[in-house]
Amino acid sequence: MEEMEEELKCPVCGSFYREPIILPCSHNLCQACARNILVQTPESESPQSRRASGSGVSDYDYLDLDKMSLYSEADSGYGSYGGFASAPPSPCQKSPNGVRVFPPAMPPPPTHLSPALASVPRNSCITCPQCHRSLILDDRGLRGFPKNRVLEGVIDRYQQSKAAALKCQLCEKAPKEATVMCEQCDVFYCDPCRLRCHPPRGPLAKHRLVPPAQGRVSRRLSPRKVSTCTDHELENHSMYCVQCKMPVCYQCLEEGKHSSHEVKALGAMWKLHKSQLSQALNGLSDRAKEAKEFLVQLRNMVQQIQENSVEFEACLVAQCDALIDALNRRKAQLLARVNKEHEHKLKVVRDQISHCTVKLRQTTGLMEYCLEVIKENDPSGFLQISDALIRRVHLTEDQWGKGTLTPRMTTDFDLSLDNSPLLQSIHQLDFVQVKVPATPILQLEECCTHNNSATLSWKQPPLSTVPADGYILELDDGSGGQFREVYVGKETMCTVDGLHFNSTYNARVKAFNKTGVSQYSKTLVLQTSEVAWFAFDPGSAHSDIIFSNDNLTVTCSSYDDRVVLGKTGFSKGVHYWELTVDRYDNHPDPAFGVARMDVMKDVMLGKDDKAWAMYVDNNRSWFMHNNSHTNRTEGGITKGATIGVLLDLNRKTLTFFINDEQQGPIAFENVEGLFFPAVSLNRNVQVAANGEFEFMTADDRPPEI
């Protein structure tokens, strides 16, 4: 409960709130303190003059919605928002709890009324000392602000809990401290007197026993006043305005400014907001629990740093003693370095402990305050502050999640003593601080191969303090040869395409920064596929392409030609694959061949310089690249025909086959780079791949003409 005390004190006077009122910004002030910080504004900026000019939209208008006032740390006094003349400047002050407040521009006139009830000057303006939002008061003055009865109740319970202990009313001699109070009997009992005079049986078993502090509060509290409307003081709150987020009466709904707003039942909204606040507190409670565990971790780090420091000093002393007298002069300096590092680590961790402790205390205070607010049974009073509390709870929870629960210091000492130099170099002896990056770790669970591609992933070791500017990934040639660089960059994952099938590759990675290069990681052995499985790629295909049979069969929804690529690319070796014509209607001319990844997808294959193809109808075929048609050859396709494609990247040639017979001469020569199997077709054709590539030697190639 003590940690909640800051929530119960006025930001102006620093004392517990007395007759607190709720400002439109959801912050609270004592009614007397609110009067003390009023500032008069020019007559031209009064609510009446603004309403007369047609610019007024509400009883309390912020001078400029959601903007900060012109007041800052570099300025003193009060500043109005844009569009309003500034009030006469006056020096700002600080309240006992450190919040800047604005004193009145002139002493209040003498009056026989109390400061809280005396009328306020015309054209008065008040600035919230917490968020610095300013607003001009209407004719009702401070009476137009709702009173925070929930906060008054929480303060009353808190003060009662801090009061002196209550005594038993039935002890005959020295009264003992009371432990319970019976609400029906209205008597305070100690434990012996309760067992003797108020046994828990018979009619007394139905009596309700409460803690003494709660019993005293229930004794002293008068019957709760019914909440009345600030606009219609004789009317009770009966509904809740969803748009304005405030309780209203029936006159507000019939003739006031809430007549066109959405309203809901007061009790239903009370329960809803209580539920929302409780849910928000659950998340904040988890953060507080994590913070407590984090503090334990930090305190353990202090002990670990102490132990590591002792171990490091012992090692250092042993090494220095081994170098006899020549090392003694240097030993003191080295120990000073270690002690300095030791103190620095302790300071960082202790500072973080202190910061986290303060933040946890504030969080716990807010939680306790919210829990006390939830205990209130006044719907309208609760709803007046529930939105602000929910926002504060969410904001406090978010503040715990921004790296707050991460240690700022490691327990290890990143120092090592180099004792290899000769005795004549002892005067140059110094610590060698490791500044090159730590050796990366290959993440085996994320490394894999698919067909002739390999994907590798790595990471920096945990608690590595030296950042890496980038990484260098190296692979050998698949035959046990020398390593070569295949990737240099900042990413920690890389996919290498175009490897040999049925080959074993060794991979390793190292990190680098401006200081140097780390050691190589452990070598990872990767095995590429023995057989490449053919499948079409939905990710790169035109949107009109229709896939089926696990992406082995394709057709098209358009009468225009559309391109689809295979998933596997080739840059080395000899590769042969076949496609079957499953459907062939109205004598279209589909095209088959290879293409780059960035080939045009909405024209026939071979129309641009990114594809090499053969297009064929039911009678003849042509070769096409960059919209150049060559080598017309007799012989076409029908339903069930098989199209074979031979890509020989060793000889840099591309050859086509129909039903196992070569179609025309070698179609293209000087073909090199990375190629993907490709097909273009329209809705009159359906093509299926056989699902497997063949890898061929020189003796296995189909016969050439």
Automatic annotation (TrEMBL):
Keywords assigned by UniProt, alphabetized: Cell projection, Coiled coil, Cytoplasm, Cytoplasmic vesicle, Cytoskeleton, Metal-binding, Phosphoprotein, Repeat, Synapse, Transferase, Ubl conjugation, Ubl conjugation pathway, Zinc, Zinc-finger
GO cellular component assignments: cytoskeleton; dendrite; synaptic vesicle
Protein localization: Cell projection, Dendrite; Cytoplasm, Cytoskeleton; Cytoplasmic vesicle, Secretory vesicle, Synaptic vesicle
Record domain RING-type: where: 10-50
Broadest EC class assigned to this enzyme: transferase
COS domain ranges (all copies): 374-432
Record has S-adenosyl-L-methionine as a keyword: no
Pathway note: Protein modification; protein ubiquitination
Chain segments annotated as coiled-coil in the UniProt record: 288-344
Pfam families named in the record: ANCHR-like_BBOX, fn3, SPRY, zf-B_box, zf-RING_UBOX
Keyword Metal-binding carried by entry: yes
Gene Ontology molecular function: ubiquitin protein ligase activity; zinc ion binding
Domain B box-type residue range list: 163-212, 224-266
Alphabetized InterPro entries for the sequence: B30.2/SPRY (IPR001870), B30.2/SPRY_sf (IPR043136), Bbox_C (IPR003649), ConA-like_dom_sf (IPR013320), COS_domain (IPR017903), E3_ligase_FN3/SPRY (IPR050617), FN3_dom (IPR003961), FN3_sf (IPR036116)
Catalytic reaction equation(s): S-ubiquitinyl-[E2 ubiquitin-conjugating enzyme]-L-cysteine + [acceptor protein]-L-lysine = [E2 ubiquitin-conjugating enzyme]-L-cysteine + N(6)-ubiquitinyl-[acceptor protein]-L-lysine
Assigned EC number: 2.3.2.27
Domain Fibronectin type-III: 436-531
Quaternary structure note: Interacts with SNAP25.
Name of the molecule in the record: E3 ubiquitin-protein ligase TRIM9
Species of origin: Tupaia chinensis (Chinese tree shrew)
